[in-house]
Write a structure and sequence with these properties.
The structure is a single chain. With 409 residues, the protein is of the alpha/beta class. The protein contains 11 helices and 16 strands. It has 2 domains: 64 residues, no CATH class; 304 residues, Spore Coat Polysaccharide Biosynthesis Protein SpsA, Chain A (Alpha-Beta Complex). The strands form 4 sheets. The chain has a 9-stranded mixed sheet with strand order 4-7-6-5-8-12-11-13-16, sandwiched between helices. The protein has a 3-stranded mixed sheet with strand order 9-15-14. Strand 14, helix 10 and strand 15 form a beta-alpha-beta unit. The longest helix is centred in the N-terminal third of the chain and has 32 residues. The protein starts with 14 loop residues before the first helix and ends in a 7-residue tail after the last strand. The N terminus and C terminus are likely disordered. Pfam families: Galactosyl_T (PF01762). Keywords: Glycoprotein, Glycosyltransferase, Golgi apparatus, Membrane, Signal-anchor, Transferase, Transmembrane, Transmembrane helix.
Length: 409
C-alpha cells in the first residue's frame, strides 16, 4: 500500500496533487519490485555479468535512471503534458467581513452602544475589579459634534516624554486620550495631575499600572469609549511608541472606508497560529491553568488596532463577563473576538516596522502608511516629512479578512 506522510502541517496540497503523488509512488514501487525479479536474468544473458558484479556495478545506476525517469514523468504530467487528475482552481479571496455605512444603510443599522444590555453595576466595575472609578477623565469628545475617529493611547505613568512627543506631532489636532493606571510613586502621580491640568487628555483607572494588568488597561479604553465617546465613527487603540500618520488615516477613513463609519471592523496586524510559551525563561510564559490550549487564537499585535464602534462595545461587554487573562492582545482580539464571531482585517503593508520607517526618514521619501512602531525621538522628523509631502491613498490596503476560525484548526 502506498501512502504519503506530510509532517509539515503548513503544507496543504490539493486533492489533485495528492493523487498524482500517490500514483508516482505506486508506479515507482512497482517498477523497483519488478526489476528485482528480472534484473539478474537480463544482465546475465545480455552482459554476461554475475550476481555479485551486477549488484555492485549496475544496481545503483539503475536506481538513479529510474528515479530520474519518474521525476521527469511527474513534472510532465503536472505541466499538462498528458491527461491527469483534475486540479483545483484557486478560490478568490474572501469578501470583506466588515460593513461600510453609506446613506442607503446608515439608518438601518442599530445604535452600537445599547447600555441597557450591560450587567447591573457595570459602570463601577472593570472585569473582576469592583468599586472601579476614573481618577482622571476629562470630556474629550463633544456629543454635539462627534469625531470621525478617537485615539486611545496606552501609556505608562512615567512616560511623559512619549506623551509630549505625541502631542507635539501626530496627536496635535486629533481627539486623543492617554490611558494610565495607578502608580505607587507620589511624585509621578503629582506629575500626572499637573500634566492633565495642562492638557486635559489623561484617563486614569483605579488599578495598578503594571505589565500583568495590561488587559485592565485595554478594557479601560473600551469602557471609556462606551460611556464617554460613543459618537466616534472609528476608534484607534495604539501605544505611546507608535507613530500614527493622522493625515493619511483621515483620508483613508473617508475615501477608502466611509466617513459614516463601519460595522464589524477590526483592522490590525494579525498574528496567526502563535504557540503558547511554556518555558520558565520566557517573559510570555503562560501556565496550562491560565490557558489550556497549545495554540493561541489568531489575534492582533496590539500596537495599532482600528475598531468600529460596535466591535468596541461587543468586546467590552464580553470582557466584562469573562475571566481575566493577562495578555491583552490574545484575550481581547483573539479569544473574545472569536466568541463574538468577528474576524480580523489585516492592515497589510500599511502597518510598518521601525527599520523601514527610519530608512524612509533618512531618504526623505514618504511612503503610504497608517501606523509605524518608532521611538518617540524620531517623531518630529517623521512628522515634518508627513506634513511636507502628504499623500492620499490611491488604493485600499491588502485588507483581506481572515475568516478562518480558531476552533476549526
Amino acid at each position: 500500500r502506498c501512502s504519503i506522510s506530510l509532517t509539515d502541517q503548513s503544507i496543504v496540497p490539493t486533492p489533485g496533487i495528492l493523487l498524482l503523488l500517490r500514483r508516482c509512488c505506486c508506479n515507482l514501487r512497482y517498477v523497483v519490485l519488478h526489476c528485482r525479479s528480472v534484473r539478474r536474468k537480463i544482465f546475465q544473458e545480455v552482459c554476461g555479468v554475475g550476481d555479485t558484479m551486477l549488484e555492485r556495478r549496475t544496481y545503483p545506476l539503475l536506481a538513479v535512471v529510474l528515479t530520474a525517469t519518474f521525476v521527469c514523468v511527474s513534472v510532465w504530467r503536472m505541466s499538462g503534458g498528458c491527461p491527469g487528475p483534475p486540479y483545483c482552481v484557486p478560490e478568490p479571496p474572501p469578501a470583506p467581513s466588515y460593513l461600510l455605512l453609506d446613506p442607503s444603510n446608515v439608518t438601518l443599522v442599530p445604535d452600537p452602544f445599547d447600555l441597557s444590555v450591560l450587567d447591573l453595576g457595570d459602570e463601577t466595575s472593570l472585569i473582576d475589579l469592583h468599586n472601579f472609578t476614573f481618577h482622571m477623565n476629562d470630556p474629550v469628545c463633544n456629543s454635539s459634534s462627534p469625531p470621525l475617529f478617537v485615539v486611545i493611547v496606552h501609556s505608562a505613568p512615567g512616560h511623559e516624554y512619549h506623551r509630549r512627543a505625541i502631542r507635539n506631532t501626530w496627536g496635535r489636532s486629533v481627539h486623543l486620550v492617554f490611558l494610565v493606571g495607578e502608580t505607587n510613586s507620589t511624585g509621578v502621580q503629582e506629575s500626572l495631575e499637573r500634566e492633565n491640568d495642562e492638557h486635559h487628555d489623561m484617563v486614569q483607572g483605579s488599578f495598578l499600572d503594571s505589565y500583568r494588568n495590561l488587559t485592565y488597561k485595554h478594557v479601560l479604553g473600551l469602557k471609556w469609549v462606551t460611556y464617554h465617546c460613543s459618537g466616534a465613527k472609528y476608534v484607534l487603540k495604539t501605544d505611546d511608541d507608535v507613530f500614527v500618520n493622522t493625515p493619511f488615516l483621515e483620508e483613508f477613513l473617508t475615501r477608502e472606508l466611509s466617513p459614516l463609519g463601519a460595522r464589524k471592523l477590526v483592522l490590525c496586524d494579525v498574528l496567526y497560529s502563535a504557540i503558547v510559551k511554556r518555558s520558565y525563561r520566557s517573559k510570555w510564559r503562560v501556565s496550562h491553568r491560565e490557558f489550556a490550549d497549545r495554540w493561541y487564537p489568531d489575534y492582533c499585535t496590539g500596537w495599532a488596532i482600528l475598531y468600529s464602534p460596535d466591535a468596541v462595545f461587543r468586546l467590552y461587554r464580553e470582557a466584562q463577563r469573562s475571566e481575566y487573562f493577562w495578555i491583552d492582545d490574545v484575550h481581547i482580539t483573539g479569544t473574545l473576538l472569536s466568541r463574538i464571531n468577528y474576524t480580523h482585517t489585516s492592515v497589510g503593508a500599511l502597518g510598518i516596522q521601525e527599520p523601514r520607517t527610519i530608512k524612509m526618514i533618512q531618504k526623505g521619501e514618504l511612503e503610504d502608511f497608517l501606523f509605524s512602531l518608532l521611538p518617540p525621538s524620531y517623531f518630529s522628523e517623521l512628522w515634518n516629512l508627513v506634513n511636507s509631502r502628504s499623500r492620499v491613498p490611491k488604493t485600499s490596503p491588502s485588507v483581506q479578512p481572515r475568516s478562518r476560525s480558531w476552533m476549526s484548526r
